[in-house]
Structure formats: structure tokens, C-alpha cells
Write a structure and sequence with these properties.
Elements lengths: L1 H21 L9 E8 L6 E2 L5 E2 L8 E7 L5 H15 L8 E7 L7 H6 L7 E4 L2 H4 L15 E4 L4 E5 L6 H14 L9
Parallel strand pairs: 4-5, 5-6
Antiparallel strand pairs: 1-8, 2-3, 4-7, 7-8
Amino acid sequence: MLLVLGVCALPVIASYFTYFVIRPEGRTNYSEFVTPPREMPATLPLTDLASMGVSSVGLHGQWLVIVTAGGACDARCEAHLVLQRQLVETLGKEKGRVDKLWLITDGATPAPALLKAIGGAQPATVLRVPAADLSQWLSPAEGHQLDEHLYLVDPMGQWMMRTPVDPDPSKFKRDLEKLLRASASWDQPGR
């Protein structure tokens, strides 16, 4: 009788041991959540490529996948822009809820061929912002640079997620799909 009681109690004891001693991490996301989320500054000095001022409030209302890099756009920048485009295109009917944004952090002019490549049916928004001002809102993981990550901003204008360096596209897409599914009741396509 004691043996039967012991066998029945063993799973309960094992679960308590696992929860209180081993403490498994219950994380299902690939990217890193920013806690607490950081509101996009209303005073962020954004300009378009024609040097016209752009209000940061105008970027609210859509999920934003952000690439930060200089205008010369090195190989990492190009890889991030390709990933950004492919990610949004593979979202299917949900792609209308996500915008692509390239924040240029210097005065260099992007190549016309690159601007044409990131165009298409749903072109990326390309804006300039001084690196010093941008770094007061977005920040890289410790020991990394700002342009090594992609950043995700929610429709309310809050930066809330950062990808690891050299992100895995399928894992990042899963994170984005979970967020889109969770926000489906209050977030609609378009600004």
C-alpha cells in the first residue's frame, strides 16, 4: 500500500522539485523583450531623404520592423533589409499590419538601386535620424552596436522587442506572428 502511495506521489514531488529547485525558463520567444517598452520620442528629429521633417507620431498605428544603418549600407545592412522585406512578405494577409522602416543614422546617400530594391508593392519607409538621438530611444544588447539588430515597435509607438545579432528569419517570424495574433482584437491594418 505504501509502495502504491509512493508511486502516485512521485510525479507531484518531481513537479515541485522541478519548479522550485531547477526553475525552468518558461520563455517561448526568440527575440528579446524590452522591459519596460520605450515610447518613441515625439521630438525624435526624423527627416525624409529630401530633408523634410517627419513627425514620429505619423509612424504610429502599424507594427514597425526597423533596420538602422548608415546610408552607404554595408553587407549587414543589405542582409537586414532583405530579411525585413522577406519577413513582411511571408506574413500573408497580415502583412498590411506591418511596415518596414529604415532609419539612416548618417548623412550618406543610399544608392538608387538599393532604394529601388526596397520599394515594391509595400515599400520601406526611409528616414534619417542622428545616431545620438536614436540611441536615446533604441539601444543594442550589451557589447553590440545599434546596427547589429532589427527592432520591433508596436502600433502605439513603443519599442518592445530586439532581435539577436544575425537573427534566424523563421524564429523571428514566429515571434512576430504571435504578436500579431495576440493583438488582432485591437490592431487593424493601415494607419
